[in-house]
């Protein structure tokens, strides 16, 4: 049993935990980071392509408004490059594939105006919600009692708007429209600056840039700086607090510290034994903040043949297993790479297929959209985040009606000497890489304020 | 480290686990039950009154339709007695207390007919849902996408009906109307025989009888039969499966068995380390089947002074902390005992009060209803089930929209050699004591069917 004594012990070496450790060290505190996996990065995870380049098995995009992650990338000396997005995009409507130029609107005027009025209504609601405290105030309480679908049904008249918002929720919140409260979505928009377009878009928006070498490099670079202070393969099993400090016990390692930052999601925190027990409110919150259900799939081809046909690789097909695909070849690779996401109930159904059936499903869909050449991928790289013991899902928490308003305050409220970090605790860009980075820094600021008292 | 080798190891000595162990032994199998607490009974827990008699800190009532628990009570030689329910009942409407005779309807004709048509509509839906598989079929899928409140708003016109159903959900599902899907409620009704009155009523219904000596006696009697096969203070930490069997590791005890029955709720199963990991679908189900949030409070007086005023002790006040109270004096006690329930968001708010404020809140409410004598209780016995580390809430699971239909099948689907029991896995009287008892027997039947193959 390794024994350590430090100022701050951090649970989890994802972006949140490593940012916390880095911030604590910058303040002159000694730190130790305990990580269950044999790697750092959490829900950022580079997967190797056949040519040795990396694609992102998890979180990958950063946008210009995401100040924390952009600053960190610069500080770490990493480079970014623009997401590939040229050529026409495709929409699968029933069995029919339709093609649209980048500047062409796939909707009729009536549909577009239906979508626009609903987006404006959402943004007006977002302006009334403080992303620091979505649970406060009348508006928050009211819109937490209805599902997003309730609002959608009464707000939009067209099937196109329904399709748009179904895709919006699947793509950004990894859920179905009836699973979450309207407040959950509105709080997310408020925390992203209040503009839907900044969440859905590429250039000038949240999908603008990628990290050269893959997003896990951010975590790898922080871990390199932290050196021996990061211990891998050390799942934390217990956190005991007393008047003087915290004892954190992991497999093979025990650390004593003045404070702990727990930087893993609520669904993982539930597995840690706390002494004394966490407050009942916090426990209820953890029980109800489930991880969403996502499988991320890269389909790798010898070359990006769709580009030759003037296609961007973007395919929207809300009813299919892969509701959304993009061209995700890294800048330095000559391979063709399509990335797709399987989410929510579709992920549960997809997972029950055999490997052969899953492959068939994915390929059939891509052949329909991109033609016969899509039938013969070199490789399919499937990352099922729900099957990852140390994630239990990705990349959002699922907040059903009533959860934010009755239990939301427990998302960041410290429990004794235990402070909470993690992308879901962010107040800007919740459940984005940027949110993870800022949450780690915020947890350390909380500790500094206490230590000064 | 104690080592055991048995046919079946059972996790949890609540009613489900003990019933499973009893059923397995009756089939000639050797069993071991591992229980985290230093007592058996799970969510049945006798609390001592000042005169040494027992009241039930948790589940307490059984009804004539609950065949499994009734049979068990008889087999164990325990006695029952009718729930006290004579005299007038009270309703708090705003600050006004209204009194009603048992056979008097508190609603106007219009209100009564609004409630009745909604009850009939619920029962018609329940007739379409198979409680074995609520996730199957069109009706189930559709009514799982809306909250109970959505349905209520479109089905009922009167505030009285809203109050009735708010109380119905708080009392039976321990939740607010916007927190769960309509399917969750309809499945519960279907599993209770399809008749709302059989759930809400006393005589001839689910609240008809109590156990002499308190409901925990059922578990205590089963544990006595099982003798050394029940190990207390042994929280199970890990379950490892291989081709030949299961190894279950608890603090201080390790057991090897052919099969395991896990008879604790999903929120507790989440804390156990499974090797290999449970399927992603099961894991998602566990994340989303949170325990509901309940505090059960007994207020103990020298005598049941309300009876002298011709009052039953029943008080319905949906807006107050104690939404529902009853006279809960055990048959053999001369004390006056009022039991009340604080549920859902009201429990979260109540818990944030100081002990003094909580006492004030409870007493003020009882004084308003029952008069000045209610101001001086001998004792207040508060059981906060959410604060119980080995329960994490009571007595229901909270199934938000989409959960039953997308993940419900995982509620009982065995994972290798691990079978599931627990009141929430029942197909009749879900989350009742009866459901706990039948679930344990059903899990053992599954194992017998496998063993015969």
Automatic annotation (TrEMBL), chains A, B:
InterPro entries: Amino_oxidase (IPR002937), FAD/NAD-bd_sf (IPR036188), Flavin_amine_oxidase (IPR001613), Flavin_MAO (IPR050703)
Cofactor: FAD
Residue positions binding FAD: 35-36, 236, 424
Keyword annotations: Oxidoreductase
Binding positions (substrate): 341
Organism: Acrocarpospora phusangensis
Name of the protein in its database record: Monoamine oxidase
Residue stretches making up the Amine oxidase domain: 15-447
KW Nucleotidyltransferase (keyword) present: no
